[in-house]
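FAQ

Q: What does a record look like?
A: Structure on top, sequence underneath. For example:
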């Protein structure tokens, strides 16, 4: 009965036999098209300008297409200039207008080249999909230019007449911009962001604005994302962490100008309490508040196993030292009344009334920031803790493992979870932390999980035994700040362990890959992102400027097209202005990770499985029509 009802509903969309036949033929044809190109980026950390450029050039995909289309028929300089135009059409044309003697001739040549490029990048898509990328005002013109017309004898004259008319009526530049934007859109079919959009760099809000309008993507949350998600939900401890990170990396402008968060109460508090209102004072003041909040949460939730982060009661205020995990460390505090003025030796973890007032004002600013709320709702809408996509497993950090390489058990609110079930349970609570009703127990627990995902020792997004914030600020000996990674990172070359993780997510252990980020691979020390013979790819190469010196490069990206997987190694980006002025590009090397035994088609993808299901349902509807049942 249910199935008959479903067919009746389907019949509303396809009201007769002919409509069903047309759709079956259409879907069957799509299955035979080449698989679209997937683009993987991770650990962007607020580097908006570099991210924008890598997005525009598809990690070299556009240059590859230019070489395919023009080969040796155009000079290297011409092909570089064409690539720059496709990346930055408005800016490049502004320079061209200043130097070209015959601008109409340049328009003609350029439009022919762009049409040739658009024909190539659109060749693996249906006309319907291509039409969706066309701007309304040029849809007819573009469709005519890229569609082969068998009935036209002199095709060159036909297409040239269209272009000359566009130029004559002053629409050439608008058409060039539209063609360039379509090429950018079609060269990458789907984008994967494998976590950590926020923190360190100056433009996470700009990155999210770009992603909001991107045509097809998914996001796997990183620990730096979930702490902002928790802050947007109103979690005091997440808000304190977010403000601390912005202060530490000199990015308070992200809060004040990017999101309009009011920091005046915090700055006024610093002036009153610390006698100064600079970034260092803000950093110290909010860190103290964060540590006090965390002290309370750790005591209330012993199942999290974070007792080693209870630090205030381990401070010897007379000796100016602290006991951390059985070892005494000297503090760099000269005078507690100056360096920790709100810490009462008799009750060191208690918030002062002034601190409570500052935090209350911050909660209001974060929860009432429309732009931040829009960005976080988007992260929830397109994001998850992990993603299984086209036979690959994507997650930001790690699968928590014990010392024997087994899935680590984590207790959450009285129940034990490990493996895939742990991911699923954590995501469930992460969503409740934002969407559950204010004041409810579910929301309170959910906010707690968002904080735990950020910093918990068994969190799959953090993957370390501690976050050494106190040590970094108050202990000069760097040994105290050492953070031990989860055993996952000791097992990345173990085939048995990696295949066990893939099997846990019901993936083919022979063909699937794990793609994750989180831990920068130090190329200059010999680290390779390709682990376990290519089954595991850790593609954090230090996209953030703060990591360039450590890694020796400026990031990895991964590209998967119908022929295979290739890793792209990026050098430091000199800026979009340099690209526009000199037709340079971000210097990148490509490493072939895997070449597929045969070309992959839509039929080989998740989308292919969905289409086959739709075809089967439509064939049942067709049979029902022919039997007169509907």
């Amino acid at each position: 009965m249910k199935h008959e009802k479903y067919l009746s509903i389907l019949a509303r969309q396809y009201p007769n036999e002919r409509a069903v036949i047309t759709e079956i033929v259409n879907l069957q044809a799509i299955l035979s098209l080449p698989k679209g190109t997937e683009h993987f980026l991770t650990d962007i950390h607020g580097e908006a300008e570099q991210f924008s450029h890598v997005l525009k050039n598809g990690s070299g995909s556009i240059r590859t297409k230019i070489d395919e289309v023009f080969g040796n028929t155009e000079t290297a300089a011409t092909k570089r200039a064409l690539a720059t135009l496709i990346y930055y059409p408005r800016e490049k044309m502004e320079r061209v207008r200043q130097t070209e003697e015959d601008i109409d001739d340049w328009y003609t040549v350029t439009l022919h080249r762009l049409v040739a490029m658009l024909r190539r990048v659109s060749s693996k898509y249906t006309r319907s999909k291509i039409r969706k990328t066309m701007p309304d005002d040029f849809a007819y013109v573009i469709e005519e230019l890229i569609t082969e017309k068998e009935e036209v004898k002199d095709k060159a004259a036909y297409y040239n007449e269209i272009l000359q008319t566009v130029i004559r009526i002053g629409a050439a530049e608008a058409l060039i911009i539209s063609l360039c934007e379509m090429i950018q859109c079609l060269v990458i079919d789907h984008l994967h962001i494998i976590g950590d959009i926020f923190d360190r760099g100056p433009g996470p809000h700009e990155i999210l604005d770009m992603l909001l309008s991107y045509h097809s993507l998914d996001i796997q949350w990183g620990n730096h994302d979930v702490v902002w998600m928790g802050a947007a939900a109103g979690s005091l401890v997440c808000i304190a962490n977010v403000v601390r990170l912005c202060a530490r990396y000199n990015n308070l402008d992200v809060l004040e100008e990017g999101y309009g968060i009011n920091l005046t109460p915090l700055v006024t508090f610093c002036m009153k309490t610390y006698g100064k209102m600079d970034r260092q004072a803000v950093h110290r003041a909010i860190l103290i508040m964060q540590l006090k909040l965390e002290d309370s949460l750790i005591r209330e939730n012993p199942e999290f196993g974070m007792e080693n982060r209870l630090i205030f009661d381990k401070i010897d205020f007379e000796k100016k030292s602290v006991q951390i995990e059985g070892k005494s460390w000297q503090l760099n505090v000269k005078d507690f009344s100056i360096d920790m003025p709100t810490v009462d030796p008799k009750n060191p973890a208690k918030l002062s009334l002034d601190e409570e007032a500052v935090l209350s004002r911050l909660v209001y600013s974060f929860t009432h920031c429309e732009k931040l709320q829009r960005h976080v709702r988007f992260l929830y809408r397109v994001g998850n803790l992990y993603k299984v996509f086209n036979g690959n497993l994507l997650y930001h950090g790690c699968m928590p493992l014990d010392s024997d390489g087994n899935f680590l058990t984590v207790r959450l609110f009285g129940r034990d979870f490990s493996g895939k079930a742990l991911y699923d349970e954590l995501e469930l609570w992460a969503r409740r932390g934002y969407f559950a009703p204010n004041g409810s127990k579910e929301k309170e627990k959910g906010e707690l999980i968002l904080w735990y995902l950020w910093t918990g020792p068994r969190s799959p997004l953090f993957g370390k035994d501690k976050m050494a914030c106190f040590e970094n600020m108050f202990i000069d000996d760097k040994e105290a700040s050492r953070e031990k990674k989860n055993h996952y990172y000791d097992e990345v070359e173990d085939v048995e362990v990696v295949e066990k993780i893939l099997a846990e997510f019901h993936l083919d252990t022979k063909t699937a890959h794990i793609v994750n980020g989180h831990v920068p691979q130090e190329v200059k020390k010999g680290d390779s992102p390709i682990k376990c013979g290519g089954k595991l790819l850790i593609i954090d190469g230090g996209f953030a400027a703060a990591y360039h010196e450590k890694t020796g490069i400026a990031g990895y990206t991964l590209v998967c097209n119908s022929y295979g997987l290739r890793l792209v190694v990026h050098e430091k980006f000199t800026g979009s202005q340099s690209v526009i002025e000199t037709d340079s590009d971000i210097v990148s090397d490509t490493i072939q990770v895997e070449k597929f035994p045969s070309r992959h088609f839509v039929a080989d993808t998740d989308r292919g499985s969905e289409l086959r299901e739709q075809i089967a349902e439509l064939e049942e509807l067709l049979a029902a029509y022919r039997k007169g049942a509907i």
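Q: Is there anything notable about this one?
A: The first helix runs from residue 2 to 13.
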